[in-house]
C-alpha cells in the first residue's frame, strides 16, 4: 500500500511510519496543509491518513481539495477532538472513517486496511492469509478450504489480527477494538483469553497450524 | 395576564370609579344649588302671600298664585318657618312650612313648589354622565387594544427573538426599526448580549476541543511508542510486564481526559444534537451489547419496558445507558440479577451487589469510587449531569440486596 500520513506531531509520525513501513508499505508524510496539498496533487495514494488539527489550518480543507482536483483517495480522519461536529462534517465531506486520538497503532492499521479493501476490491472482498480465506461481505471464514463457524467476536478478532499480522498486538488494543470501554480491563482480558483459546482450537482443528503466539504479559502475535 | 390587558383593566376601573364619584358630586352639588334656589323662591313667595293675606284679610284663591300650591291649617301655637322635601302628584317637591296670623288666629301655611323642571335637568345630567362614561370606556378599550398592542409590538418581537435564541444559530440578523426609545435600548442590549453569548459559546467550545487535542496527542505519542517498543523481540518478561502497566495507565489517562471533557461539554450544554429516541428499544440494544459479559457472570436480567419516546442527544442517551447498565453489571456478583423498569415517568435500574461503602449522598460526586473500581470515578457524575441537563433527576438508594438507580423524567 502507498500511504500518506498528514500529521503535525513529528514524534507520532515517526512511530506510525515505523509501524507501517515494516511490511512493505510505502509511507509518505506531510506535516502541514501546504505539503499535503502538493503531495496529493502529484502522487496517487491508496489511503490518506489525515489529522484535522494542523498548524496552518483545518485538515478538513484537504478533503475539499481532494474533491476539487477530482481525486478518489480513501481518507481516514484522525482527530484529537472527540467532537461530533468534526466527525459529521468529516464524513459528509467524503472521508471513509474517523478515528479519535489516542489510538493503538494496531487499530489504525485495521481501519486503514478496511478502507483500502473497501476501495480496492469492490464486490470481491476476499481476505486471504496463508490457508485462511475470509469473505468480508458474507463473513464466511474458510481454513484450508473447510468452512469454520466463528462467533462475532472471534470473527472480528481474526480480521483484526490478520490486518496486524506479524505484529505483537496488545490485549489493551484488542479490548478497545472489541468492547471500546464497555467492559472493565481485567474482565476483557479474561474474555480475550477465552476467545483466543477457542479461535486457536478451531483453526488448529482444520489446518493443524497454530497462528497465535502468546507474548507473555502483554498480548499475542499472529503469524 | 398580558400587560396590555392588566393596564386596560386598571385604567377602566379607575375611569369608572372617577366618573361615579364625579356623578355623585354633580348630583349633590346640583341638588344643593337647586334647593337653595327653591328655598329663596319659597321664602319670597311666602312673603308675598303673607303680604296678600294681611292686605286682603283672607286666604288667596289657588289661581291667584298659579305655580304654587298653598295649604292653610289652623294651629294653636306659632311655629318657626322651615323647609321640607315632599311630593305632589307623585313628583318630588319642596315646601315651606310657616305660620300666618289671620284675624288673630294662627294658621300653618304650607307652600309647595314642584321640582319637576330640576328633576328633568338632573336626569339629563345623569344621562350625559352615563353616556360619557360609556363613550370613555369604549374609547379607552379601543385605545388600549389598538395603540397599546401596537406600542408593545416591538417588545413581543424581542421576546420572541429571545425565546427562539439559540447559541448555535445565527443572531441579530433582523434588526427591526423600533421608534420607541426604551425598546430600542432593549433591542440593542439584547443584540449585544446575543453576540457575547455566541462568542463565549464559541470560545468555550474551541477551548474544550483544543484542550482535548493538546491532551490527547501526547497520550497518542506514548501509546504509539509503546506499540512499536513491544515489537522488539529482545524484551524480557519483566520489561513486558512493566510495559503492560504503562499501557493500562495511559489507557486510563485517555479515558479520564475524555470523561472530563465530556463533563465540561455536558455542563456547558455544548452537545446540542437532538433526535427522537425510543428508549425501550435503546435499552434492549444496550443489553444486547452487554450480553456477553452478562452471560459470563450468569446474571439474570428481567425487564419491564413500556414504549417511551424521548427527544435527546442520541450520543448522550447512549453514554447514560452505557454508564448505568455498565455499573449494574460491573458491580454485580456472579449469579446476581438486574431489573430494568421503564415507564413514562421513570426508568429504574436495580442490580444485586455488595453493600456499598460509599455514602449514597456522595455517590454522584466526581472521583467517588470504591477501592476495587477500575473506572475513572466520573461515570455516575456524567450520568447525573446528563439527567440534570434534560431536567430529569437521578437518584440512588440501596434496598437490600439491590443498588437502585432511578431516573425520574
Describe the fold and architecture.
The complex is a heterodimer of chains A (223) and B (409). Chain A is α/β, with parallel strands linked by helices and 223 residues long. Chain A has two domains: 2-120, Response regulator (Rossmann fold), CATH 3.40.50; 126-222, Winged helix-like DNA-binding domain superfamily/Winged helix DNA-binding domain (Arc Repressor Mutant, subunit A). Helices cover 45% and strands 25% of the residues of chain A. Chain A is built from eight helices and 14 strands. Chain A has a five-stranded parallel β-sheet with strand order 2-1-3-6-7, with helices on both faces. Chain A has a four-stranded antiparallel β-sheet with strand order 8-9-10-11. In chain A, strand 8 and strand 9 form a beta hairpin. Chain A is globular and about 55 Å long. Chain A starts with a strand and ends with a strand. The model of chain A has no long low-confidence stretch (mean pLDDT 86). Chain B folds into three domains: 3-137, Beta-Lactamase (2-Layer Sandwich); 182-267; 275-408, 2-Layer Sandwich (Heat Shock Protein 90). The mean pLDDT of chain B is 83. Chain B contains eight helices and eleven strands. The longest helix of chain B has 54 residues, at 3-56. With 409 residues, chain B is of the alpha+beta class. The A-B interface holds A 9, 11-12, 15-16, 18-19, 53, 79-84, 86, 100-106, 153, 167-168, 170, 172-173, 176, 181-187, 190-191, 215-219 and B 209-210, 212-217, 219-228, 230-231, 237, 240-241, 243-244, 247-248, 250-251, 254-255, 258, 261-262, 271, 273, 289-290, 292-293, 296, 315, 322, 326, 330, 374-375.
Amino acid at each position: 500500500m502507498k500511504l500518506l500520513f498528514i500529521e503535525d506531531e513529528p514524534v507520532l509520525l515517526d512511530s506510525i511510519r515505523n509501524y507501517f513501513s515494516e511490511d512493505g508499505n510505502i509511507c509518505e508524510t506531510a506535516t502541514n496543509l501546504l505539503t499535503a496539498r502538493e503531495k496529493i496533487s502529484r502522487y496517487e495514494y491508496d489511503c490518506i491518513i489525515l489529522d484535522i488539527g494542523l498548524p496552518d489550518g483545518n485538515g478538513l480543507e484537504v478533503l475539499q481539495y481532494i474533491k476539487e482536483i477530482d481525486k478518489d483517495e480513501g481518507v481516514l480522519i484522525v482527530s484529537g477532538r472527540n467532537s461530533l461536529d468534526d466527525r459529521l462534517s468529516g464524513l459528509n465531506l467524503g472521508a471513509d472513517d474517523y478515528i479519535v486520538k489516542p489510538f493503538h497503532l494496531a487499530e489504525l492499521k485495521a481501519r486503514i486496511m478496511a478502507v483500502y479493501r473497501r476501495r480496492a476490491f469492490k464486490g470481491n472482498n476476499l481476505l486471504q492469509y496463508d490457508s485462511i480465506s475470509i469473505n468480508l461481505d458474507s463473513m464466511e471464514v474458510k481454513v484450508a478450504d473447510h468452512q469454520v463457524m466463528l462467533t462475532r467476536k472471534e470473527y472480528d478478532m481474526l480480521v483484526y489480527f490478520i490486518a496486524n499480522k506479524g505484529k505483537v498486538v496488545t490485549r489493551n488494543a484488542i479490548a478497545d477494538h472489541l468492547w471500546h470501554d464497555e467492559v472493565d480491563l481485567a474482565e476483557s482480558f479474561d474474555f480475550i483469553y477465552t476467545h483466543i483459546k477457542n479461535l486457536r482450537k478451531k483453526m488448529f482443528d482444520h489446518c493443524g497450524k497454530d497462528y497465535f503466539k502468546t507474548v507473555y504479559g502483554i498480548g499475542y502475535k499472529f503469524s | 395576564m398580558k400587560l396590555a390587558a392588566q393596564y386596560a383593566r386598571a385604567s377602566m376601573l379607575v375611569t369608572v370609579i372617577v366618573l361615579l364619584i364625579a356623578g355623585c358630586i354633580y348630583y349633590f352639588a346640583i341638588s344643593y344649588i337647586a334647593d337653595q334656589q327653591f328655598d329663596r323662591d319659597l321664602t319670597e313667595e311666602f312673603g308675598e302671600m303673607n303680604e296678600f293675606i294681611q292686605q286682603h284679610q283672607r286666604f288667596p284663591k289657588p289661581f291667584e298664585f298659579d305655580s304654587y300650591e298653598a295649604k292653610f291649617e289652623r294651629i294653636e301655637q306659632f311655629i318657626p318657618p322651615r323647609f321640607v322635601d315632599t311630593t305632589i302628584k307623585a313628583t318630588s317637591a319642596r315646601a315651606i312650612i310657616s305660620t300666618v296670623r289671620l284675624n288673630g288666629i294662627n294658621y300653618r301655611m304650607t307652600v309647595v313648589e314642584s321640582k319637576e323642571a330640576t328633576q328633568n335637568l338632573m336626569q339629563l345630567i345623569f344621562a350625559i354622565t352615563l353616556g360619557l362614561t360609556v363613550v370613555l370606556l369604549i374609547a379607552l378599550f379601543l385605545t388600549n387594544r389598538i395603540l397599546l398592542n401596537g406600542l408593545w409590538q416591538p417588545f413581543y418581537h424581542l421576546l420572541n427573538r429571545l425565546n427562539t435564541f439559540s447559541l448555535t444559530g445565527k443572531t441579530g440578523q433582523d434588526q427591526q426599526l423600533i421608534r420607541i426609545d426604551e425598546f430600542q435600548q432593549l433591542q440593542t442590549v439584547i443584540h449585544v448580549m446575543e453576540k457575547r453569548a455566541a462568542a463565549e459559546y464559541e470560545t468555550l467550545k474551541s477551548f474544550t476541543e483544543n484542550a482535548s487535542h493538546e491532551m490527547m496527542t501526547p497520550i497518542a505519542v506514548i501509546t504509539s511508542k509503546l506499540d512499536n517498543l513491544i515489537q522488539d523481540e529482545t524484551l524480557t518478561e519483566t520489561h513486558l510486564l512493566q510495559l503492560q502497566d504503562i499501557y493500562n495507565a495511559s489507557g486510563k489517562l485517555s479515558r479520564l481526559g475524555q470523561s472530563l471533557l465530556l463533563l465540561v461539554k455536558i455542563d456547558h450544554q455544548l452537545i446540542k444534537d437532538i433526535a427522537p429516541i425510543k428508549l425501550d428499544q435503546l435499552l434492549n440494544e444496550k443489553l444486547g451489547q452487554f450480553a456477553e459479559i452478562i452471560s459470563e457472570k450468569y446474571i439474570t436480567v428481567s425487564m419491564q419496558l413500556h414504549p417511551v419516546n424521548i427527544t435527546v442527544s442520541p450520543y448522550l442517551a447512549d453514554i447514560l445507558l452505557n454508564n448505568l447498565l455498565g455499573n449494574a453489571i460491573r458491580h454485580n456478583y456472579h449469579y446476581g440479577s438486574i431489573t430494568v423498569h421503564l415507564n413514562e415517568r421513570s426508568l429504574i435500574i436495580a442490580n444485586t451487589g455488595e453493600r456499598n461503602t460509599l455514602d449514597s449522598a456522595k455517590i454522584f460526586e466526581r472521583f467517588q469510587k470504591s477501592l476495587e473500581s477500575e473506572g475513572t470515578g466520573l461515570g455516575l457524575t456524567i450520568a447525573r449531569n446528563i439527567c440534570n441537563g434534560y431536567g430529569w433527576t437521578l437518584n440512588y438508594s440501596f434496598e437490600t440486596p439491590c443498588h437502585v438507580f432511578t431516573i425520574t423524567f
